[in-house]
């Protein structure tokens, strides 16, 4: 047992040590997964001189890569771990045997999806030439599923069937774990902190129908173990990686969920977090990374700083357990309690139909790879930011972006920022800090100072103090602090909310960029085009110089956006999409609207299918055969109707007889007098005369008042307080033509038509 | 015993909105199945949705929503949490976010701090929505009186709907409103984020009405009531429901106000007046319910007025007829004196008594002061107007039994010649 260390580096204060057998009672060390990648990245390139002398003897040396028994272990790797000490170390030439011939031929084996047994292509009956595409199930499992008694071929006598590590893991004879940190003890033994995985059988819910054979759950249970108990590598993958991994050997596992061992609850592993890590790794691989230059050390310092503050707050959190989560900004204390007790079946077994996939694509929250139709604006924004950052000309830089809602203003800025972040990583640009604020989410306009200060420094203070500090910071910037020397881009969304009575907030914020050393760039987004003109001249002179207009999308652009999202699937009728986009372009040019119409149309189509008599599956087959689209013109039409049409006509048609008479009387009186409103007294007289002329019972005034108040509640008519009684003023809320149209052919009271 | 049990059963049914609306569950065009489809869609496909339920009051918006939520909770146990907000209470920005945070904390068994600022509360909302999305849990926000959330800057709606825009969680925002133009009240940027699904709740058609009546009043076969009684009860009820007279009366009720809650109120009164000795519903019960059911508050309150009060109202009416635009108690007194002087009756009261009668009328809202300035003058000098129209007064005088001839005469003189 020799250990070779590569790249010896960091020392950090020792964690509470616990060398325990995995079988020992589980200990709860930390509820939160430590942030992995930044540590490893940093430790591989430089030292952080943290004082560890006070820990004295307990000093450990931490590594990011350890070679142990000829195998290299990196932090973040997944490994098999022995359960008990007498678990045999597997022989090196561990080979899975064919289930049929039990011989070890050197040819391709196929794995059954169901029993995970391996089969030689040539041993199958009938033999296969190629590896089939998609899932494959062996003949035995098929037979068993059909209800037949199946006899597996017996191994040749005298041969000991060796179990592979995978099989032993799934039979809970081994553990799997992820290495979180590696270290060398003072006495030379190697230890590691691991995060355990569990197999479905070990969870509280047990193995369920829909669990995959190779599924593992990550737990929040961390433990320090000796390096000796690690057997070798295995590969636990996220769903995305797993679907890509085809022939990576036997030790591949699938992990989608996190399992909380205290609450026995499941939760998906955050995709956003993991995808961010991926980005970091990509950047790692960049060759430029090793050429240390000062900018990058800046960002790293900041990273460090941020991490530090997170650590501090997490320590605080542990001290004051029982503090309410809503008083802790941005962190859910009891997040683990939200987990689900059992992953219910519909989530896993739900096979997406074509229609649903199409619907998912037009969902607003689903992210798109590209943003069509806004290239020009995006290059302009990029040029603006680049120009102001790289050329050291931050003086008075302020961009005002305006446009109607749903034209991709915020999204474009975000996309530009993502691009620039990559450039910063690639060293082609200076680093800068980016702060985003949505003013409608602030409780008062003044709070913006607080938010900016918090984003810059990580501390929370009152807004008055924050304003003071920010003022001094931007106006007389000292060069002592490196961190504050970075240019800073602030994106202020919904800028118009900041307009207060004396407009001091806007003035203060827009005044900072004009200060000589501020290095501040402000991007403001709002809907109204003439916001700068509405403001005081001293503000508009600071803001209104550089503007960017996001025009409403025209129908071709909307069409392109929808097509781009659908990505070639033919769920929607082309003409239907064109219809929807033309309609939206004519009204608002709001991309959200267009997408919502498509989604609603798909939903309606789905609903129609579900309720229609014909069999659903055969319907789909028929449709795909004839090449018909799932969502056609009628659905889009219905969705548009629902979205744009006020429902008052239907309500007028369905309301009570007296209400109808009241409505007609209002129309009649208004038409005769040519006025826009009438008093209740006139209305009541008119209703009485209408009724008596046509042989109806004359309703009491109280009933008429009640009916008109009910109409007023629905805002079909506008009326003031009912206590005004006969002086109450009434007015139609919709054009009188609508009332006439609705009641023209009324079956219930045919004589109404005379008065319209 | 049996009879009380039956009447209890009927009353319990009529008070339970979810029972009343369960009749419309089965039809595919009904709002129940549409709403259920929308919500279960967002549960199954893990997407965000927002729906608006519109319709006049008393048509079962909340009841159907409750029904759908209860059924979904049974179908998907443990993954649905509901946050209920009401525009009357939580329309204001800070209150709304705080209440959302409070209910979410309660739901997930987290400690809740009352001191948290609204920024922190909205952070919590977003965090919990994200966590719920990861755990396949659905949060349903029901906003009753949706139109009241649209006052002010609409921050609550904005933060809710904006969260649904970028989070891949599964949350549904359901707004309920009786204002048909509720979605027009939204600010532009909020409206753009709203997904504009609308379900319209209107009164059921005639056939459905008939079905509803049977659904509510027929006794069920499988209870501990004796089958003979149940059969007898039902057959009598069918006879009543088919009779022309009943249809006539029902039409009278429905003509004035045809929503479901009104109908149910009517039936409830009928059931309450059920004769416990015979144990069956009769036509008389329904007739009696109708007689109760036409509340004419003005007429009632006029009927109980004293003669002096009538004199005052008549005087006001005469002044009205003389097209005096503005008058106060003093000018009314002058008119009263004029009548008294002309006819010499026993109904001549002193000024103080008249003032009390006048105040009494004010309290009952039959007349009203036209100026809002309370401090400046005593009541006698403030302008006043009558809220009773001549027609109503005429009816009331006719109905008033020992009505002095003089009163009628002086009234008729002016108006109905």
Automatic annotation (TrEMBL), chain A:
Residues 1-14 have a biased composition (Low complexity). The keyword Calcium does not apply. The keyword Nucleotide-binding applies. Signal peptide: none annotated. InterPro entries: AAA+_ATPase, AAA_lid_10, ATPase_AAA_core, BAH_dom, BAH_sf, Cdc6_C, ORC1/CDC6, P-loop_NTPase. One of its GO terms (biological process) is mitotic DNA replication checkpoint signaling. Residues 153-270 form the BAH domain. Keywords: ATP-binding, DNA replication, DNA-binding, Magnesium, Metal-binding, Nucleotide-binding, Nucleus, Zinc, Zinc-finger. Component of the origin recognition complex (ORC) composed of at least ORC1, ORC2, ORC3, ORC4, ORC5 and ORC6. ORC is regulated in a cell-cycle and development dependent manner. It is sequentially assembled at the exit from anaphase of mitosis and disassembled as cells enter S phase. Binds unmodified and methylated histone H3. Component of the origin recognition complex (ORC) that binds origins of replication. DNA-binding is ATP-dependent, however specific DNA sequences that define origins of replication have not been identified so far. ORC is required to assemble the pre-replication complex necessary to initiate DNA replication. This is Origin recognition complex subunit 1.
From TrEMBL, chain B:
Component of the origin recognition complex (ORC) that binds origins of replication. DNA-binding is ATP-dependent. The specific DNA sequences that define origins of replication have not been identified yet. ORC is required to assemble the pre-replication complex necessary to initiate DNA replication. Residues 212-397 form the Origin recognition complex subunit 4 C-terminal domain. Residues 51-197 form the ATPase AAA-type core domain. It is found in: Nucleus. It comes from Zostera marina. Belongs to the ORC4 family. SUPFAM superfamilies: P-loop containing nucleoside triphosphate hydrolases. This is Origin of replication complex subunit 4. GO terms for cellular component: nuclear origin of replication recognition complex. Its main location: nucleus. It holds the Pfam family ORC4_C. GO terms for biological process: DNA replication initiation.
């Amino acid at each position: 047992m020799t250990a070779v260390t590569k790249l010896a580096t960091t020392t950090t204060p020792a964690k509470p040590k616990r060398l325990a057998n995995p079988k020992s009672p589980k200990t709860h060390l930390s509820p939160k997964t430590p942030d992995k990648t930044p540590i490893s990245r940093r430790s591989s390139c430089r030292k952080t001189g943290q004082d560890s002398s006070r820990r004295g003897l307990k000093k450990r040396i931490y590594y990011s890569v350890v070679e142990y028994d000829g195998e290299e272990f990196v932090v973040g790797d997944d490994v098999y771990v022995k359960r008990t000490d007498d678990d045999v170390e597997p022989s090196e030439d561990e080979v899975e045997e064919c289930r049929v011939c039990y011989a070890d031929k050197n040819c391709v084996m196929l794995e059954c999806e169901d029993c995970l047994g391996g089969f030689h292509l040539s041993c199958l009956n009938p033999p296969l030439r190629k590896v089939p595409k998609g899932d494959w199930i062996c003949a035995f499992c098929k037979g068993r599923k059909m209800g037949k008694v199946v006899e597996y071929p017996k191994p040749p006598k005298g041969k000991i069937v060796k179990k592979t590590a995978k099989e032993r893991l799934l039979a809970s004879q081994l553990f799997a774990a992820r290495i979180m940190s590696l270290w060398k003890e003072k006495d030379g033994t190697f230890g590691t902190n691991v995060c355990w995985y569990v197999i479905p059988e070990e969870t509280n819910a047990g193995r369920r129908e829909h669990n995959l054979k190779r599924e593992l759950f990550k737990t929040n249970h961390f433990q320090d173990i000796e390096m000796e108990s690690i057997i070798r590598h295995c590969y636990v993958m996220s769903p995305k990686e797993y679907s890509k991994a085809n022939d990576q050997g036997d030790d591949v596992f699938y992990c989608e969920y996190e399992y909380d061992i205290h609450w026995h609850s499941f939760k998906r592993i955050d995709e956003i977090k993991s995808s961010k890590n991926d980005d970091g790794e990509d950047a790692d691989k960049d060759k430029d990374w090793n050429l240390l230059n000062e900018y990058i050390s800046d960002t790293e310092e900041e990273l460090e700083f941020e991490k530090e503050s997170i650590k501090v707050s997490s320590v605080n959190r542990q001290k004051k357990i029982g503090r309410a989560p809503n008083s802790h900004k941005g962190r859910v204390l009891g997040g683990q309690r939200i987990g689900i007790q059992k992953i219910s079946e519909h989530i896993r077994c739900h096979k997406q139909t074509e229609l649903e996939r199409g619907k998912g694509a037009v969902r607003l929250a689903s992210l798109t790879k590209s943003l069509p139709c806004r290239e020009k604006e995006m290059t302009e924004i990029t040029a603006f930011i680049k120009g102001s950052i790289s050329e050291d000309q931050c003086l008075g830089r302020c961009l005002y972006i305006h446009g109607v809602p749903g034209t991709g203003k915020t999204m474009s800025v975000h996309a530009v920022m993502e691009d620039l972040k990559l450039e910063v990583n690639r060293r082609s640009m200076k680093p800068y800090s980016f702060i985003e604020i949505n003013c409608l989410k602030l409780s008062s306009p003044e709070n913006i100072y607080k938010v900016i200060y918090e984003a810059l420094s990580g501390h929370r203070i009152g807004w008055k103090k924050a304003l003071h500090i920010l003022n001094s910071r931007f106006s007389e910037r000292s060069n002592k602090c490196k961190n504050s020397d970075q240019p800073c881009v602030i994106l202020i969304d919904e800028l118009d909310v900041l307009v207060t009575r004396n407009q001091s907030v806007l003035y203060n914020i827009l005044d900072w960029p004009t200060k000589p050393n501020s290095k501040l760039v402000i991007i403001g987004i709002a809907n109204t085009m003439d916001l700068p003109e509405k403001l005081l001249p001293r503000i508009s002179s600071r803001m209104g110089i550089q503007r960017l207009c996001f025009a409403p999308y025209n129908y071709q652009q909307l069409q392109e956006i929808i097509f781009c999202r659908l990505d070639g699937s033919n769920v929607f009728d082309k003409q239907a999409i064109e219809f929807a986009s033309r309609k939206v372009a004519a009204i608002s040019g709001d991309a959200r609207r267009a997408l919502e119409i498509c989604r609603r149309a798909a939903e309606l189509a789905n609903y129609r299918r579900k309720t229609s008599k014909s069999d659903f599956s055969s319907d789909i087959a028929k449709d795909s055969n004839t090449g018909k689209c799932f969502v056609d013109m009628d659905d889009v039409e219905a969705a548009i109707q629902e979205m744009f049409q006020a429902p008052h006509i239907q309500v007028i048609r369905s309301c009570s007889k007296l209400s109808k008479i009241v409505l007609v009387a209002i129309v009649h009186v208004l038409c005769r007098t040519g006025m826009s409103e009438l008093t209740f007294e006139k209305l009541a007289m008119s209703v009485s005369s209408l009724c008596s002329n046509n042989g109806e019972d004359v309703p009491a005034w109280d009933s008429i008042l009640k009916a008109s108040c009910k109409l007023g509640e629905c805002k079909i008519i506008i009326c003031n307080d009912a206590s005004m009684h006969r002086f109450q003023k009434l007015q139609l809320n919709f054009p009188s033509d609508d009332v006439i149209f609705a009641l023209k052919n009324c079956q219930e009271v045919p004589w109404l038509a005379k008065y319209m | 015993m049996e009879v009380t049990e039956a009447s209890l059963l009927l009353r319990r049914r009529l008070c339970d909105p979810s029972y009343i609306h369960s009749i419309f569950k089965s039809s595919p065009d009904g709002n129940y199945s549409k709403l259920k489809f929308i919500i279960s869609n967002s549960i199954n496909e893990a997407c965000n949705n927002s729906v608006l339920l519109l319709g006049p009051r008393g048509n079962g918006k909340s009841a159907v929503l409750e029904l759908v939520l209860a059924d979904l909770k049974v179908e998907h146990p443990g993954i649905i949490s509901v946050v209920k907000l009401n525009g009357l209470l939580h329309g204001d920005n800070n209150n709304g976010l705080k209440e959302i945070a409070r209910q979410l904390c309660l739901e997930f068994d987290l400690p809740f701090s009352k001191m948290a600022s609204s920024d922190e509360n909205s952070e919590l909302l977003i965090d919990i929505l994200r966590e719920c999305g990861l755990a396949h849990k659905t949060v349903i926000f029901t906003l009753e009186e949706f139109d009241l959330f649209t006052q002010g800057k609409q921050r609550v709606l904005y933060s809710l709907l904006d969260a649904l825009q970028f989070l891949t969680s599964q949350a549904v925002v359901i707004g309920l409103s009786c204002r048909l133009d509720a979605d027009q009240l939204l600010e532009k940027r909020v409206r753009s984020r709203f997904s504009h699904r609308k379900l319209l709740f209107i009164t059921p058609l005639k056939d459905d009405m008939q079905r509803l009546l049977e659904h509510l009043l027929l006794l069920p076969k499988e209870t501990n009531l004796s089958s003979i009684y149940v059969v007898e009860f039902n057959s009598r009820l069918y006879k009543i429901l088919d009779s022309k007279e009943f249809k006539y009366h029902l039409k009278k009720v429905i003509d004035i106000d045809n929503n479901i809650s009104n109908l149910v109120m009517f039936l409830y009164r009928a059931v309450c007046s059920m004769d416990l000795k015979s144990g069956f519903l009769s036509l008389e019960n329904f007739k009696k319910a109708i007689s109760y059911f036409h509340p004419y508050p003005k007429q009632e309150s006029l009927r109980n007025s004293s003669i002096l009060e009538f004199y005052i109202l008549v005087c006001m009416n005469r002044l009205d007829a003389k097209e005096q635009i503005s008058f106060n108690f003093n000018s009314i007194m002058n008119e009263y004196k004029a009548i008294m002087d002309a006819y010499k009756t026993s109904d001549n009261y002193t000024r103080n008594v008249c003032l009390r009668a006048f105040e009494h009328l004010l309290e009952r809202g039959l007349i009203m002061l036209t100026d809002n300035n309370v401090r400046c003058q005593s009541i006698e000098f403030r302008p006043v107007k009558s809220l009773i129209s001549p027609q109503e007064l005429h009816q009331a005088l006719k109905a008033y039994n020992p009505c002095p001839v003089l009163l009628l005469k002086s009234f008729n003189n002016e108006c109905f010649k």
